[in-house]
Amino acid sequence: TFTVGKVSLDLEEPNWVPPENITPEQEMKKDPQILNSGINSEFVFLEVSVPYKNVVTANSDGTKNPAVEHELFTYSVNKGWTEIGSGRKDEGNKTVTHLYVYGTEEACTALGKDETTPTLFDTVRFINAVEGQGLEETTQHIVLNAYGIQSTDINGGTVSPEEVWSVLSNQLQNEA
Fold it and tell me: What domain of life does the UniProt record list for this protein's source (predicted)?
């Protein structure tokens, strides 16, 4: 008799309350984390898609910067998470997508059953965009996606974030 395990996860944001009528430089609580709700330990990844726009920003003293493409929100990544590569720009959706692994550049960290990762970040800040550039009364979304795969028996036992993500993303493409 063999019992098959289960890989399952929940993306949580315990302190997230969607704000309305945000202002430049406003900081908002946003705290994505992953709960392993399955049976097996998992390697987990978080994808963060941030809108971008060609805008003029202001310095803290009010002086303006030239218009350039900026991600509209900034955040500081917490310990325990590592970005894989650099942001991937989607010109059609006007987003930059960042991929983070729970672990280091060298190795994924296994997330045990019923364990929760540290938050990827705790807050996001809207950039200091000068008004009158078409952002007023628009809705901007930071899209989060969480992914997981069993932490053992992957491609000969690899724990490399790039290799594990390659296996996982191939599986995700096959599901589409």
Answer: Bacteria
Asked if residue 9 lies in contact with residue 88, where contact means CB atoms within 8 angstroms, the answer is no
Tokens describing residue 43: 């390697």
CA distance 60 to 70: 17
* pTM (two decimals): 0.93
Task: Please identify which residue in the block is written with the tokens 């007023």.
Answer: 136
CATH number where 140 lies: 2.60.40
- Round to whole Å and give the CA distance between 126 and 71: 9
Residue 71: which domain range?
A: 9-175
**H helices within 57-160, ranges in order?**
none
79-123 pLDDT tens trace:
999 999 999 999 999 999 999 999 999 999 999 999 999 999 999
Residue 170 lies in a domain: yes
Q: Please enumerate in sequence order all residues whose Cβ is within 8 A of that of 150, keeping only pairs 6 or more positions apart, or say none.
A: 5, 7, 40, 41, 42, 43
Taking Cα atoms as reference points, which of 96, 11, 19, 10 lies closest to residue 53? 96
**If we measure between CA atoms, which residue out of 49, 75, 83 comes closest to residue 127?**
75
Q: Is the dihedral of CA 90, 144, 141, 131 positive or negative?
A: negative
Whether 3 is covered by a domain: the verdict is no
Q: Does residue 2 lie within any of the structural domains?
A: no
- Taking a C-beta distance cutoff of 8 angstroms, is the pair 41, 113 a contact? yes
